[in-house]
Amino acid sequence: MTATNPTPPTPPGGSTGSTADDRLLRTSPLHRLLGRPELGSVVGALAVFLFFALIADGFVRAAGLSTVLYAASTIGIMAVPVALLMIGGEFDLSAGVMVTSSALISSMFSYQMTANVWVGVGVSLLVTLAIGFFNGFMLTRTKLPSFIITLGTFLMLTGMNLGFTKLISGTVSTKTIADMEGFASAKALFASVLTVGGVDFKVTILWWLGLVALASWILLRTRVGNWIFAVGGGKEAARAVGVPVAATKIGLYMGVSFAAWIAGQHLLFSFDAVQSGEGVGKELTYIIAAVIGGCLITGGYGSAIGSAVGALIFGMTDKGIVFAEWNPDWFKFFLGAMLLLATLLNAWVRKRAEATA
Prior knowledge:
- By secondary structure, the chain is mainly alpha-helical.
- 71% of the residues lie in helices and 2% in strands.
- The chain has a two-stranded antiparallel ribbon.
- A hairpin with a 2-residue loop joins strand 1 and strand 2.
- Helix 5 (95-112) runs parallel beside helix 7 (146-169) and helix 6 (117-142) packs antiparallel against helix 12 (245-271).
- The two termini are 24 Å apart.
């Protein structure tokens, strides 16, 4: 059965209205802007930037902005796939320690096997992807909440990181691999510094921007993007119209693990060795960045660009407090305040978008 549009009413003056004109009215730039999930976070980011620009002299200098972008990129690399996962209606509490796990695997495998560093990097990629597959597979097969599944993975990885590191290395940190074959080329890919106009920028910024572009393309231009929004809005309804719900959720978890591998390699090749206890608590940072960026806790709404803006707010606040010479203990206070304000603003923006749709 096909629905037909009613004939538009005759406007004052006697001329007949145009259906095309009505469509243009409904999709005006203002309405499209109000419909963007990242609008609230963009407003917040501008406010944070102006605030620290006024009170901290070094904040707006090129070197200061480079520092801010680096801090944002280390969060943003993970916030992007976490945002996609949240749009799909799920969480991953193991994301933080998974970063450390990927770094530990690369380091210890290369050192113990006296292999080229790239061998350890490749093994780490396979194992980290397997962890993501495990999370997605257990979620779809057991029907347990993602909170429980990934909390279990978080605890297991935390114990394995410490236990295997002490068993193999005898300490809580890995041995340095800086003198091993392949280290220089791997460092160039994951932890190099690019100098532009006399200012140093970390390569993680490029990784971050690349992931944002890729995720935005997937969400907005591909069938998979439609599947992600569909399963986040309601998996049963999505399954009823032919969406591969299980494959989509497993793919989202593997996306998180792929980003964790990138972040883990950066961690390793930046410092030559890895502390096994790192990463605990970072998963909340990634989730908060995604929420500040416009993702809903309930799923089905958000954007990759919004997660990038959320990560940028993190970076600006973290480094802005340092440039302003404030006590860094206040960072979490500002973070909590921004989370609440951003959530309220995002809710208001979404209601306005629905009202003008």
